[in-house]
């Protein structure tokens, strides 16, 4: 590991003062960054520990919830308002990693985490356009069973690994940022970038800019929501396909629907095409299937991951069916 | 300064030293094991306060002023912790390499259950989880055992906690 200096920030402004240079990294729970430093993929000169910054989870006046970027994953999933009003978020977080990792990992770190593409990690032996821009991608003609089928480019097919961000995409969350030039906020779905020709640019953070919070708007229908994750083993594994869904059916008609996909795309994937087909239509398996077909119509599979197209469609139909027929959030261990 | 099993210790000057290496190589507390060193196996699980974490993905420098507990801190004057005794009685291990992490993890897990934290397999996120074998398997999934002693591990955890339904 490259030598670095360690410093602890007292608040967001202090963090940005300490970490404003391009050679610095903000340290959250460390569950991804420390591993990447050990592999020499990340080589910061300064680590600014922000685990004590913005750790609160507070209701917003007028509805909604403000989750500090320093809040641990466990604290968010444990929070009564999250469990009650946004079960899709609690269950998405609980589906990720292990309890030990969730006790360490922060919300800000979850947003900023990097792909687990094996070729990205293989610094010694594989080409990767994320690690070395312009070098080429060995995943495209390699073993790509776990890779993306949506939002891919000729430069990169790496999946975004987060479960939590998929739920946040479905909920229409916004991200609060603090940088040298002040504060800004933007929708979570605009925080992560598609790879296009520059897969090394993964999000819109400016140098030194810090994620300070994630805000959930008031969404009463989200109390009827869930997250289903399909993977090779039933725990401690990344998603092959995951679906976050909020659904309100009234008189047999879909009145509100929010859908997002994980495990299949280069960023947390809001399924807008499927939502457009579902809205105002009868809540039937046929309509659910048509919506899933529309969302996956642009899928671009590689050699080994074509199975994800049908798997994603079936998982979408299954989750929508569950939410339209059951009381809402139910177990599917 | 860090407090390990109640005793103060000087933190390393090199910020790169992981909490795991600090425990094993600096303090010679080799009970905490290094398995994958990348957060995927749970062998290095320790307790920070009452929370289970992975010491391989933490830097020792982050724990200035904090208290942690390791497997060495669980027995009192040579008397094993009830979970340690149960692991012996119920064959919760073969080679024993994952055992310190399993036991620290199980102690942290029981605290999480008491706090009412649900798991991915908890049916009702708002109700106290009925902690059956399925729940325990999910909650302990961060600790791998290559000998496959999982049934004994679950038996041992159930045996020491009457609140846990078999």
Describe the structure.
The complex is a heterodimer of chains A (333) and B (166). Among the domains of chain A are: 5-51, Uridine Diphospho-n-acetylenolpyruvylglucosamine Reductase, domain 2 (2-Layer Sandwich); 223-325, CO dehydrogenase flavoprotein, C-terminal domain (Enolase-like, domain 1). Chain A is of the alpha+beta class and 333 residues long. Chain A is globular. Chain A starts with a strand and ends in an 8-residue tail after the last helix. Chain A contains 12 helices and 12 strands. Helix content of chain A is 29%, strand content 20%. With 166 residues, chain B is an alpha+beta fold. Chain B folds into 2 domains: 2-73, Roll (Ubiquitin-like (UB roll)); 82-160, DNA polymerase, domain 1. Chain B has helices at 19-26, 82-89, 99-115, 133-139, 150-160; strands at 2-4, 7-9, 45-48, 51-54, 67-69. Chain B has a 5-stranded mixed beta sheet, covered by helices on one side. In chain B, β3 (45-48) and β4 form a beta hairpin. Chain B is globular and about 45 Å long. The model of chain B has no long low-confidence stretch (mean pLDDT 95). The interface between A and B is large, with 41 and 42 residues. Chain A: Residues 1-221 form the FAD-binding PCMH-type domain. Chain A: Keywords: FAD, Flavoprotein. Chain A: One of its GO terms (molecular function) is FAD binding. Chain A: Pfam families: CO_deh_flav_C, FAD_binding_5. Chain A: This is Xanthine dehydrogenase family protein subunit M. Chain B: One of its GO terms (molecular function) is 2 iron, 2 sulfur cluster binding.
